[in-house]
Design goal:
- This protein has a single domain (4-274), classed as Tetracycline Repressor, domain 2 (Orthogonal Bundle).
- It is globular, with a radius of gyration of 18 Å.
- It has helices at 11-21, 29-53, 55-60, 76-97, 99-118, 125-145, 150-170, 175-180, 186-216, 221-240, 249-274.
- 76% of the residues lie in helices and 0% in strands.
- The chain is built from eleven helices and no strands.
- With 275 residues, the chain is mainly α.
Length: 275
């Protein structure tokens, strides 16, 4: 129901922000722990709520009908317990970090949970999801410094555009279903070709943001190599998917983007270690 492996999309960027926010030093062990706990709890709560909100929709969609709730393998009561429990853990983790994180915890949950209803009324649902994941590096920065700073906002915006782009590609699978059931998505509104053009544009914005953050983090060839790797992986996913051929959507969605986030995080850590 939760697909923990999808944490690979936001968590590496939170860690990149975390190590950058500390300057020359490294985050305290307790900060590492509570940021990771907050990340996992926030995503668990958001995904659990999304499954609850989309239960009826998922039951009608052939692609999602075998998910745990519509297939009857899990109960709504169980999903609610997981969702609420994870939200409580997230708030606790925020409190353990600093007062600013605690104050922002509830608005953050509102964004994360609110996404589940976005596609019912706005084509910008892909950007809403991107913003929800883009909060991660901003939150990690606040966990260290107690303030929102420009580099964190730049990385958050880059993540937002990156996620919105690949979510647009992923949603190509549901173009017909979304249109017939009155759900808002870029493919449903602009068709596959138009949606792919928009996804490419979003990824151009993402690359600009990644490059700007790399410079703000200290520059150097290793960080810029991370940006170059991201560019190649984005290019690869756009070559994998065509308007008339969606057979490689899963590879474009998880493999390319999972590799992108992990590789960028790894190279940023190496850059900091080398100094």
């Amino acid at each position: 129901m939760i697909a923990f492996k999808h944490s690979v999309f936001a968590l590496p960027f939170a860690l990149m922000s975390l190590i950058t926010a500390t300057g020359a030093g490294w985050p305290a062990t307790r900060t590492w722990i509570w940021v990771i706990v907050a990340m996992i709890a926030a995503r668990t709560s958001a995904m659990g709520f999304n499954r609850l909100a989309d239960h009826a929709i998922d039951s009608k969609n052939p692609r999602t009908a075998d998910r745990s709730l519509p297939a009857g393998r899990l109960s709504r009561r169980y999903a609610w317990v997981v969702t609420v429990g994870a939200a409580v853990v997230f708030i606790l983790a925020a409190a353990m970090l600093n007062p600013v994180c605690l104050v922002l915890a509830i608005p953050t949950l509102a964004v994360l949970l609110g996404y589940s209803y976005a596609k019912r009324f706005t084509t910008a649902a892909h950007l809403w999801l991107g913003f929800a994941l883009g909060i991660a590096p901003i939150g990690a920065w606040i966990a260290v410094t107690g303030i929102i700073d420009t580099p964190a906002v730049v990385l958050g915006a880059a993540v937002m555009f990156w996620v919105a782009g690949f979510d647009t590609i992923y949603s190509l699978q549901d173009e017909s279903f979304d249109r017939s059931h009155g759900l808002q998505s870029l493919p449903a509104r602009f068709g596959p070709r138009g949606a792919l053009v928009i996804a490419r544009l979003l990824h151009v914005f993402a690359l600009i943001g990644f490059a700007a953050f790399a410079v703000a983090a200290g520059g150097g060839w290793i960080r810029m190599a991370a940006v170059a790797a991201a560019a190649l992986l984005m290019l690869w996913q756009h070559r994998l998917v065509r308007a008339d051929d969606l057979s490689a959507v899963d590879a474009a969605f998880f493999t390319a983007n999972g590799a992108l986030s992990v590789l960028m995080c790894f190279l940023f850590i190496v850059a900091k270690l080398i100094g």
